Every structure is written in C-alpha cells, then in structure tokens.
Amino acid sequence: MGLVYSEPACQSAYDGDVHQLYQVLKTDPTDLNIQEEHNGDTPVIAACRHGNLRVVEYLLKNGADVHLTNKKQRNCLHYVSRRSFSLMDYLMIAILMPILLLGYFLMLQKQRQHAALMKAVLSSEVNVDAVDYQKGNTALHYVCQRKNHRVVPLLLERNANANIRNKDGETPLDIATRLKFKKIIILLKKTH
C-alpha cells in the first residue's frame, strides 16, 4: 500500500506509470507541476517519494519545477534524501543473505538505484540547501541521519552547505558525530 493522490498526474508519478503520466500530461500539460490539494505534493515530489527514477527523469526532461515545495516545505530532493530501505527490502536482504550473498547484491542494487535517483534530481537546478519547516533539515541533514555515505559526496559536489543548523541546533556534521557515522564525519570535515 502507498499514498493515494487526488491528482492523476501525482498518482501516476507515485505509481511509476510513465505511460499513464504521459496520457495525463498530453490531455493537460499544466498538470506537470500541479500540486495535490491535501499535502501539496507535485508529480516530481510524488515520484521521488516512491523512488521512481524513470518517472523523475521523464518529468525533469519535460521541465518539472524542482523548486516547488509541498505543505511541509519539502522539495523533491528532501524526499530523495529521506529514502531508505523499506521493511520488505530488509526482509528480502535478510532472507537472501545466506544464499550466495544474494541479499548483499540486492542491497548494493538498491543503493545504486538511490544514488542514480539522487544524481537525476541533482542534475536539475534544485535548491540543495532548502530547509523544511518541520525540523529545519536540509537534504544533507537527512542523508546524514540515514547513514547514506554514498550520497553525501553527491550533495557536497553541488556545494550543499554543511553548516546549516536545523531546529535542534544541529549541523549535518553534528548529526553524523552523534550517530558515530565515521565515513560521513570524514567527508563533512573535508568541507570545513
């Protein structure tokens, strides 16, 4: 089960249905940046929430506005940064790990997909330092919380500000230090 959107463009993007999204946008091109009434998500935010790389690439190619934020003031980059393994992913990895390390390869594939999604969003003019209203976090805060050391360099290459403090007064480095994520600490200290 997932989110249910009242806007067909958002639902198609969330579901990963490029063909249906094409049909919706063919009928009404203004739906490219339509915001869902309930939470303010746009199609590109919906696609990022669910990790649909093909849909994100399609939307960006067609000029989706990556600067739009939803009612939590989160843009598409926030949702890419907040992505982590689902419960089903963890179960599959745990079950397949003893079988020729298949779980390990599944985990690597998921990490590569996440990095590809991050690269796609960062290839746009998205604001890498956008702050959400709820916690005052940037994308860099979220990837540090999730110990995503493979994605931190991608944000730093786009000059993400590692000195922004969230509402708890923490910088991304403070979060990585508190959680003892050594690789991320090293990456962030290189930017100082």
UniProtKB/TrEMBL annotation:
Keywords: ANK repeat, Membrane, Transmembrane, Transmembrane helix. The keyword Transmembrane helix applies. Pfam families: Ank_2. PROSITE patterns: ANK_REP_REGION, ANK_REPEAT. The chain crosses the membrane at residues 90-108. Gene3D superfamilies: Ankyrin repeat-containing domain. ANK repeats lie at residues 39-71, 135-167. InterPro entries: Ankyrin_rpt, Ankyrin_rpt-contain_sf, ANR22. This is Ankyrin repeat domain 22.
